[in-house]
Every structure is written in C-alpha cells, then in structure tokens.
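input
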Amino acid sequence: MLRHLLVSIAFALWLTIGAHPANATPGQAEAAPCTPDTCYAQAEAQKDLFVLFRELRENHFDLYARRSAADYDRLYKELLEEVDGPIRRTRFHRMLHRLLAYGNVGHAKTEVALLDGLAHLQQGGSVIPLSIRYHDDNMILEEWADESETLPPGASIISIGGLALGEFETRARVLISADTDRLLRAQLEQGLPIYLYLMFGDVEDLEIGFIRPDGERGNHRVRARTYQELMALAQERPVKHPEFDGATRAFHPLGDDVFYLRPGPFSATAEERGEDGAAYVIDGFRAFIDKAFTALAESEAGNLVIDLRGNGGGDVSFSDLLIARIADRPFTFASRYAVRASKTTKVAWSEREGSAETISGIIARGIADAEPGATFEVNLPLVTPAETGRFEGRVWVLVNRHSYSNAAVVAAQVQDYGFGTLMGESTADLATTYGAVESFTLPHSEALVYYPKAYMVRPSGDETVAGVQPDVPLPLQPVGTSEDRVLAAALAHIRSR
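output
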C-alpha cells in the first residue's frame, strides 16, 4: 500500500495535480483566516501568473501545439480574475497546475501542488489509501483499501467521491500535465492517495463505488489514514505483487539460453554519483554495461532480455552505451530534433560544457549562435556500434506504461532500427514528443516550473501522438500474485521460438 505513496515522491517531476476552484468537490473549502504564511497577497499571486504565462510563451517550444492562443489568453484572464484578494497558497498552487496542464504537454509542469500534498502527509495529515492500476479503461483496486473485505483487490472502481470514473478522470485531465489519457492514467497509478487529497481536500473518508470480481456492485466509505496508519495497515495486510524496481541495475542468466539485463536509470544512481556528484556522471554506468556484457558473453546465451519496465529515463549519452552493444548499424535517437533558443534557455546553456563532437556540444553551440526565441534544427551525429563486446544474438526489450522519457526513446530506437523485439504493453510516454526540459522559478511562490525546449521525432519519422507499441503484447500482471507473470510470459514466448 505504501508503494505508490513512495513512488509518488520519487516521480515528483512527473506527478502533478490540483483542483479547479470552480469545480471544487466537498472538502475543498479552506475557511481558516489568511496569514502571510498561508496566503499570497493579490499582487503577488497575479505577478506569478503573469510571469508564468510570459515565460511559457517565450520558452516553451510550442505552447500552442494543442491549444489556441485565444483559448490560452481566455484561461489566463479567468485565472487573474479569480485572484480577487489574498489567496491561500495551496489553492494558488493548484491554479498554477491548471495553467500548465492546459496545453496537454506532459513535460510542461510543476510539482508545487504535489509537494503540498506530501507536506500534508508528512505533517501528520491523512490521505485516502487507494492504490490502483488500469486494465484497459477499468480502474482496478490493486491493494487493500482498509481492513474490510467489502472492497477487495481486483474490484473495478466506478466512482470516487460521488464522481463517476469518467467525470473524475475528466477533472483530473484538466489539471495533470499529460499528452494523452493513457499518460494521465499512468500518473494516477503512481500516487492516487495524494491526488485524492488535492482534489477533495482533508476529508475523513471518501465513498467509493465498485464492482467486485464476482460482479456484485456496491459502495464503501474508505477512511483516511496517516502515514503511520498506512504503514501499520500494510504490515497487517501485506500485498502480493512482484518486487520490481526500475531504479536499480541488475543482470544474470535465466537459463535455457536467456540472459536478463535491467539497466536501471539512464543517469547516475545515488551510489554512482557520490555525495557531491552530478546525475550525469557516466563512469559508473559504463562500468556496469561492461560487466553486464562480459557476463553475457561468458554465459553464451543467444537471447538477451532488456527490462525497461518502470524505467524513469535519463540521458541519451547513457542509453547510447547500451544501444551500441546491440546495434548492427549506426544509429541516433531521433530523425528530427529541433530546439527553441529562448533567453532562459540560452542562460541555462551558457555554462554547460560539451565538446564539439558530442550531442550536448552541438546543442550548446546551436543555442549560443541562435537569436533569442529562434528555433533551429540539430544535425544529430550517428553513433557507431561498439567495436568489441557487441551482442549478436536475439534481443528482447520489455516495456510498460511506466517506461518514461528516455526509456520510451530507447524502445523506439530498438523498434525503428530493428535492433530487437519489443514486448509487454505500450508506453504511456510518447515516442515523438516535446521534451528536453529546462526550468524557471516564479518570484513569489518560488514554484519551479519545467518547460520543453525541444521537439524530437522518433527515428522512423512517425509523429503520431502515442506511446511505443510492443511487437509482442503480453498479458498484464494479475492482482494479488507475487510471481512476475509478465516476465514469465515473455520467457515462454522466447523459449517457444
């Protein structure tokens, strides 16, 4: 039960949600008197909205990719009018989310409202203990909500707090930065308890409408729990699910001519970077890849499974080291890579180092030479396959809806170049996307805002707004099972060939 709460912290850059003040649900009212610690002055809030909208227009690669300028102007004016006096900080933070999410671009976001929710929990507040996953269009309860067996794992949730599931998702869709409904749902899976707090407020309980696995319909009020209560409930009613961590690195033979590799994040782990190291210190990952492919060669396995499930992504300089070990021809990560060189982006890149031969160096030089606000195309260099230690057997890549960012890029590379076979389910994150985020900070709320400076098209040139589709779809993990059924299905397919 705590898994999704903890994951929500780890994925704070991804998971942002707030509540539309005009559509507030019961429990959202905030009647306590305003103080400088709890509220922003009207001028402060309006200034932050002004700066946010100005910076988005100036820095976002294409703010109007999916919304018209007229519609954006209308929303901005509406938000300004809602700030008609001192405004509670938590309410204003949700307003920032609303403006950012309006563009339906996942990489334009802030985490400030999410942090409000986490602070509430850390300060002794309570949240509704619902942990879910989606099977197609169905929201399935993955874990026990409370001690009662009225609402069991595997039940389909059809309403939340009096809102039919479709209406609930519609309200969330307005406020979560997501390109597609699938990405929205993937984010809901990562931390629904926090989202429910942000949408419904500090409620004692919440009515959940459901259909049990046996077909029986019903309603059940789920009581809010503190963090300590959640821990106790998790110990009392442990959840059966495979322990899988996309943030760690691992490799080992699986027998029957199959070798397993989980590369972990395409960035330095905390252990690799040390106390003062940066996220993109690459030596540790390079050493890991060397060890993994040495062990692979010694195993003499003819099939390699690369597991990208739950992988949060990272930088192509890391993933290139992996792809170079399975590639049979030169490759790149995008067929088109365009960058907008705004003033903010130019300042951010003015202090970044990179040799002329590297992608970072090419981008840095292009940003430096471009006029503020101009866009330019980056001529991406091809990466050559590794001269030694390259695997020439059959490659299989496992992906799921939580294969984010550069993990989705790697999946697209493998598929488009024919370096391997994708297995699992489609990614929620896009193969062709607005990304390569930079950030700015608002003056009064000090909210850190992320924006995409680039537009990148997958190697095939396909610009469809969708995730990467697997070549071999696999059944989803059943609720309540401890065995990794997805991996088992993948191995059965591999060994049958």
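quick obs: The longest strand covers residues 448-457.
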